[in-house]
Design goal:
Number of helices: 18
Order of helices and strands: HHHHHHHHHHHHHHHHHH
Number of domains: 1
Strand content: under 5%
Distance between the termini: 31 Å
Structural class: mainly alpha
Helix content: 55-70%
């Protein structure tokens, strides 16, 4: 029995490189896990699916944030005052998109939505998701500070923040559209776009801002009154006291710290600082609600370490792993190097590299010579 299971696992591992080559290169460079990692992440997604089903049938508490998104009234989208719960306060696009899903019903929506949030966790953390599940349970049982249970709380409450964190990871892996969830909901997350400005990476900056502008334009064309109502709500409630307890560190202190951290990260090629900056720079930061954004720093940090040449932990300047081309396509002249994590340059001379290539082409491809699969986090 044990021998048969071992042969099955070996066969799956052998097929992983071939399966990876079937996926387009641009998608592979977001992340293609190994066979073991894929199983690991699938377990997390299945757990999220079960949670969604339990929410749909009412066996667990109502996910309040997801219910707020679902019940947002497009005819009167914003409340008079900033309240503690059950109030939609994001820009109109999220409510408009979810309104289009109403024909499928709440049960189908919450199953899909919760599964997507857990898939975001699986993408960022893999097996380490269970650590945050354990921390969440310990927070409930032993009264730990809320920050310890924030990741589990957001995943079960249906808050979009985990999707924002995963989107930032995708964006910093070379697909700038990952910024959309944040820019269309918690717009202050746009501070993270300063990464591109500081590094003079204009193409991903233009893509993220251009697509966001296009979505806003379409939304405004269909419902200009909702945008006017949102702006009026912001102005009216700017001086209102917050409905819940805020982080003790004031925004006036957090903002310069976040800007300094972003500048340091951009200059030293540490992309993992971006989720930290975004998570801590919200003006009205609810107490202990930033860890669900900070988890996006974990895969970026691990990928940076694994992509660094042997013997070095970090690099800077043009030699960094962040300065490599964003795809297998040749870079266009004049383009700034995008933010996608690539592989470090081959330390061998051009002659040695050419000889190595000739030998590699003469050898049959195997799981040991395939280099199309990006290492798992």
């Amino acid at each position: 029995m044990a021998g048969g299971a071992r042969r099955v696992c070996t066969s799956i591992t052998d097929l992983a490189p071939s399966a990876g080559r079937l996926i387009p290169a641009r998608i592979r460079q977001i992340y293609v896990p190994s066979a073991y990692s894929a199983i690991d992440r699938a377990t997390v997604v299945i757990f999220g699916l079960v949670c969604g089903i339990l929410q749909a049938v009412g066996r667990v508490p109502l996910p309040q944030d997801a219910w707020t998104y679902w019940t947002a009234d497009l005819n009167h989208l914003y409340p008079e005052h900033w309240g503690p719960s059950g109030l939609y306060i994001y820009p109109p696009p999220l409510a408009q998109i979810i309104a289009l899903l109403h024909p499928v019903g709440w049960q189908v929506f919450i199953v899909c939505w919760t599964t997507i949030l857990w898939a975001a966790l699986a993408y960022m953390l893999g097996r380490w998701t269970w650590l945050f599940v354990a921390l969440g349970i310990a927070t409930v049982l032993f009264g730990l500070p809320f920050a310890f249970g924030d990741v589990l709380g957001h995943s079960l409450n249906g808050n979009i923040q985990l999707l924002m964190a995963a989107g930032i990871v995708v964006a910093l892996r070379g697909h700038a559209l990952g910024w959309l969830p944040g820019l269309l909901t918690k717009v202050v997350s746009g501070l993270g776009l300063g990464w591109y400005v500081l590094r003079r990476e204009w193409r991903p900056l233009a893509i993220s801002l251009g697509v966001t502008t296009a979505v806003v334009a379409v939304s405004f064309a269909f419902a200009p009154s909702q945008w006017a109502e949102w702006v009026a709500w912001l102005v009216k409630n700017a001086s209102e006291p917050p409905p819940v307890e805020l982080d003790p560190v004031p925004f006036t202190l957090r903002l310069p710290i976040c800007l300094a951290l972003l500048i340091w990260g951009a200059r030293t090629n540490r992309a993992w600082v971006v989720p930290i900056v975004v998570g801590w720079s919200t003006p009205a930061l609810y107490l202990g609600t930033y860890p669900s954004m900070w988890v996006g720093a974990i895969p970026l940090f691990l990928w940076a370490r694994k992509s660094s040449p042997a013997g070095t932990s970090e690099q800077s300047g043009a030699e960094s792993w962040l300065d490599q081309p964003s795809s297998n396509l040749p870079a266009k002249s004049g383009d700034s190097p995008p933010t996608l994590v690539g592989r470090p340059e081959d330390p061998r001379s051009e002659v040695d590299a050419a000889e190595f290539t000739q030998v590699a082409e003469a050898q049959p491809e195997s799981k040991f010579t395939d280099r199309s699969v990006i290492p798992e986090a």
